[in-house]
Amino acid sequence: MTIQEVLTKIRSDEINELFSELYGNLPEKVEAQKERYAHAVEAFTVAFPDPKELVSDTAVEDMRDISIFSAPGRTEICGNHTDHQRGRVLAAAVDLDAIAVVSPNGSNRIRILSEGYPLLEVDVTDYLPHSEEKETTASLVRGMVAQFIKRGVCVRGFDAYVTSTVLPGSGLSSSAAFEMLIGKIIDSTDNEEKAGAIEVAKYGQIAENEYFGKACGLMDQMVSSVGGFVEIDFKDPAMPKIDTHQCDLDKLGFSLVITDTQGSHAGLSNEYSAIPHEMRSVARFFDKEYLREVDEKEFWARISKLKKDPQISDRAILRSAHFFADDDRVGQEAQALDKEDFQRFLELVNESGESSADLLQNLFCAERPQDQEIPLALMLSRRILGTKGACRVHGGGFAGTIQAFVPKEKITEYVFTLEGVFGKGTCHILRIRPYGARKIL
Most exposed of 9, 185, 245, 383 (fewest Cβ within 10 Å)? Predict the structure, then answer.
């Protein structure tokens, strides 16, 4: 479609149904997204002017073909720190997303202008890791390109204008949304979508591990790529088992709220790395590599011997107990969704939060015991919600965000209270998005 055709379609009612599914059916939300998409198209034309216009003395209609892609952020629902032990997780795509207006540029270069950032260029013929690119957006693009090229795909250059509502540092995985956005563009444009959502998610993990330099799991990419409620079993990480589940929070009268408690992530690397290290120390006691391979009954039967092992701390035992409980709880939560037993689902969310606090112990940094933003936010949440909602730590923990399922009649009070403590704009009211990364137009 040409730029003018896309703008006409966006501004018509033809796109309303799709936008309602992606962002909610409130008319003001649909209109806001239509304006957002139109702005992105117009910004694309400014960032990447039609070459014909640059050599013509008269106005020339821009007839380039453009497409628009979207990839969502994600929220973890259950399975806190279980994926690195080849356990199970339940997560969901949300209605905050990254979108890209894209057009082939006839070169070997991918040029991306993300709103608020400088222009990024990557040569698709140069797809080996660059050490100087570690922890940069360019490394993610190069890493995604490399995965397709290694599988025989001829990746062509394109221009893209990107804008995102998945805020960095929000715990909603803006990096995975960006990776899946690039992966969907390449798979759709150059590969006839032959790779598919699950493979593209795997490409994203490799890009982040080997090019960006972050030892992440596969959950974030998989949820952004697949969409909806996603249950993932990492027993075989090369072939994770994927199940999808449905739940309409709007019809149930609930909203999902993520609150940024404004805690500092500085100096937390040791806290994060200690969790898998301690869990694996218990696994090695049983001559296994991961806790998923350990028989839970044997774990409980040999607690006294674990306690006496000088290589195993008490905290390692507690964290391993959390793994077994939360790994099993994933299946229970998924079953509750399938049975439409939302009250049981909420009870399990609260149980997961309590397990993270008491056993996993990732609500605050041991070296900064005076900074307890997450426990403070959870205390306030429980006071407001009582027995009518649920809350828990969100993501890796120690600092960052909490998650709450809030009855709609309590939303105003909840946001007013939490933002009164942590600051205006720290609460994000979200919907579960039924679609993962996809081509919109």
Answer: 383
Q: How far, in Å, CA of 234 to CA of 12, rounded?
A: 43
Tell me the one-letter amino acid at 395: G
For 315-345, what is each residue's pLDDT tens digit? 999 999 999 999 999 999 999 999 999 999 9
Angstrom distance (rounded) from CA 301 to CA 284: 16
- Residue 266 is classified by DSSP as T
For range 254-266, the mean pLDDT:
89
Q: What per-residue confidence (pLDDT) applies to 11?
A: 92
- On the question of pLDDT at 191 being above 90, the answer is yes
Domains and CATH numbers, the chain: 249-430 (3.30.70.890)
Sheet with 427-430, side-by-side order of all strands: 390-394, 401-407, 254-260, 427-430
- Say how far residue 18 (Cα) sits from the centre of its chain: 21
**DSSP result, 306-329:** HHH-TTS-HHHHHHHHHHHHHHHH
Assigned token pair, 329: 């709880």
Q: Are 200 and 180 in contact (CB under 8 A)?
A: yes
More confidently predicted of 215 and 16: 16
DSSP conformation letters of 352-419: HHHHIIIII--SS-TT-TT--HHHHHHHHHHHHHTTS-EEEEETT-SSSEEEEEEEGGGHHHHHHHHH
Confidence class of residue 33 from pLDDT cuts 50, 70 and 90?
Answer: very high
Alpha-carbon distance 76 to 229, whole Å? 10
Contact criterion met (CB below 8 Å) for 130 and 137: no
Secondary element (H or E) of residue 123 = strand 120-123
